[in-house]
Amino acid sequence: MSDGGARRIALKVDCDTYLGTRDGLPNLLRLFDRHKIRASFFFTLGPDRSGRAIFRVFTRKGFLRKMLRSGAASMYPKRTMMYGTLLPAPMIGAKLGALIRSVGDAGHEVGVHGWDHIRWHDRAARMRADEAERDYGAAHAEFARIFGRRALASAAPGWQAGVGTLFVQDEYALDYASNTRLGAPFHPTAGGITFHTLEIPTTLPTWDETYNADGWGAGAELIARYRAAVQGTEVHSIHTEVEATALMPLFEQQLEAWRADGVGFVTLEEIAREVKAAPGEIPVRRLVPIELPGRAGTVTSSVAL
């Protein structure tokens, strides 16, 4: 993402699970306060049915290989891996509303990630608009209950989007969304429709894609690769279940390395304001599914018209 030469990162924090949100948010708030970083947080607010992700072993090529390579079983608590199957699915927003609200109180940007993370992740690309509205509307209603105002941004679980979800998203008059991977901000088109919500993609690979992967390593080599990856303004998605818990000491080393390199930190809402200042320069791009190294299944990206 070009910005005239400055090296900057927007940290996009995806809060996917009940225990990841409960245990990871306090850690990140302390870490970001210590390093004077303002980040963009996106919350899953409905049922945590993470245990049902196990069925992706049968439906998503590479899922088991990714889980074994990244050591996911050691990063995610056993209870998380049973929610929605052997254990009831906790309602994240209802149980953790005060903690979630504290993120906004600390001065960070806050937005909607989703309602049922598993369902959106697995079905969004083929959801009808009425089905998408049930989940998306529930998440926005819970966000408004917690924060006392409407959400101005959202970021789809698993970078999954389709015509139905984008149609619903446009009804919410957001400042922007972050549903895709790779490239500069754009307006998406799909199914013959051009949508007006600005899209800001995640540009860097995520740690669950690279950690312990060939050529990336799990320590100094990983940090060095991410130092070199920052070429302009980048969007880096992190997860409370990974960088804010099991790998938090390593993540702090990453932040310190970026600071030492002179990298600045911005929020997604700041990027959106900058892009919208020149509306005639925002391209329209067609959504496409792509595969990424280290990630099972496909994610939503875009190509030029």
Model description:
The chain starts with 7 loop residues before the first strand and ends with a strand. Helices cover 40% and strands 17% of the residues. Strands 1, 2, 3, 8 and 9 form a five-stranded parallel sheet that branches. The chain has a four-stranded mixed sheet with strand order 7-6-10-11, with no helix packed on it. A two-stranded parallel ribbon has the order 4-5. Helix 1 packs parallel to helix 5, helix 7 crosses helix 8 (163-170) and helix 10 (220-229) crosses helix 12. With 305 residues, the chain is α/β, with parallel strands linked by helices. It has helices at 18-35, 56-59, 63-70, 72-75, 92-105, 117-123, 129-147, 163-170, 207-210, 220-229, 242-246, 248-260, 268-276, and strands spanning 8-15, 40-44, 109-114, 153-154, 176-177, 187-190, 193-194, 233-239, 264-266, 284-290, 299-304.
Task: Please outline what is shown here.
This protein has 305 residues and is of the alpha/beta class. It has helices at residues 18-35, 56-59, 63-70, 72-75, 92-105, 117-123, 129-147, 163-170, 207-210, 220-229, 242-246, 248-260, 268-276; strands at residues 8-15, 40-44, 109-114, 153-154, 176-177, 187-190, 193-194, 233-239, 264-266, 284-290, 299-304.
